[in-house]
Amino acid sequence: MKAAFIEEHGTLDRLKVGNVEEPIIKSNEILINAKYGALNHIDLFIIKGWPGLNLSLPHVIGSDGSGIIKEVGKEVSLFDEGDRVVINPGLSCGKCFFCLSGKQNLCKHFSILGEHKWGTFAEYFKVPEINAIKVPEKLELNAAAAAPLTFLTAWRMLTTQANLKSEEFIFIHGAGGGVSSAAIQIAKFLGAIVITSTSNKEKMEQALKLGAEHVVNYVENPDFDKYIYTKITDKQGVDVVIDSVGQETFKTSIRLLKPGGRLVIPGATTGPISEIDLRQIFWKQLKIIGSTMSNQKEFREVMNLIFLGKLKPVIDKIYPLEKICEAEQRLSEHNQFGKILLKI
Ligand SMILES: [Zn+2]
User: Fold this and answer.
1) What is the 8-class DSSP label of residue 250?
2) Which of 104, 197, 239, 240 has an alpha carbon 20 to 30 Å from 53's alpha carbon atom?
3) What is the C-alpha to C-alpha distance for residues 166 and 148, in angstroms, rounded to an integer?
4) How far is the CA of 219 from the centre of ligand 1 (A)?
5) Cα(130) to centroid of ligand 1, in Å?
6) 102 Cα–ligand 1 center, Å
7) pLDDT > 70: what percent of the chain?
8) Which fold has domain 152-290?
9) With contact defined as beta carbons under 8 Å apart, do 135 and 84 qualify?
10) Going by DSSP bridges, is the β-strand pair 29-38/64-72 parallel, antiparallel, or unpaired?
C-alpha cells in the first residue's frame, strides 16, 4: 500500500512516499481505508526523533485520520465494513487502574497513534475499535479528520482542567495553531470572553470570525499584557491563560492572570525551561495546570458537538499525500490557520 514513512530520523527530506506492507488487524481492531489525514506538530518531532525513541523502521507517521472501514476483527461489535469513521489518536492499555477509571490519558502506556505505532498517512491504517466513532452522513470526511487531536486537547484543557466558566476572561496565545483555533471556538461556546494574540492581520480577522472578542498583535505591540490589563479587563487581569508556547511566553502568562487565576499548559513549542518568581504564584494564589490529550469520554463529548455543528473544524489547506513534505514544511513555518490536511 502507499504510505508516507521514514527510514531514518532527520530533516523533513527524510520523509518518503512509497510502498509498505498493509497492516494486519488483531481481533479487537478495525482496518480503515484512509480518505483524509491531518498534520500535527508531533509529526515533525517524530521525523526528527528524540533520545529514547526507538522505532522499528520503516515507520508510517500520522495521528489524525478518517476513512471507510475495510475489515473488522473477530471480536469487533460496534462497526461493520463500509462504515465511515474518524479516530481518537490516544492509545492506552485499557486494563490499568487509570484506564478502568476513565482516565486513559494518565495510563503508563498512553501513546499517540503514529508515535510508536504506524499512523494514518497511508492507504490503510488500523486502530482498536474503541478508538473509532462513526461520522454522520452530513459531515464531510475531511472536516472529520481535521477535528480529533486538536479539539479533544482543547476540550479537556478548557473544561476538565481549567473549568472555564461563562463570562470569564480567557487569553489564548497564538491564534493560528490547530489547538488554539479549536480553543477559541470552545471558549466562546462555553460563554467566556476570548482574547487571543497573533502576528498578522489575516489571522487576526480569522480569529475574530471564530469568536474571539479581542485580538492583540504581539509583534507590533510587545507590551500587549499591559494593554489587556488596563484596556480590556479594567485592571483585573484574566481568569484563564492557555500557554502552549512555553519558554518565550511563560512570564507574560503569569503577569496576565488575575489573583486566583489559572494557567493551563498543554505544550511548550519554544522550549521547556523557564524562570519564574515564585512570589507571583503564592501572592496571587495562582493555579498552574498541565493538560495532555483527553480521555475517551472527553473525545466523545467534543466530537458530538462537532457532529451537531456547534463547533466547526477549520481547514487551512488540503494537499495530496505525495506533497506531504510541502505540507509539513508549511506546518513547521507556522503559516497556517487551522488544520493542514492530506488527501490520501
Ligand atoms: Zn492503562
Assistant:
1) H
2) 104
3) 24
4) 43
5) 14
6) 9
7) 100
8) Rossmann fold (3.40.50)
9) yes
10) antiparallel
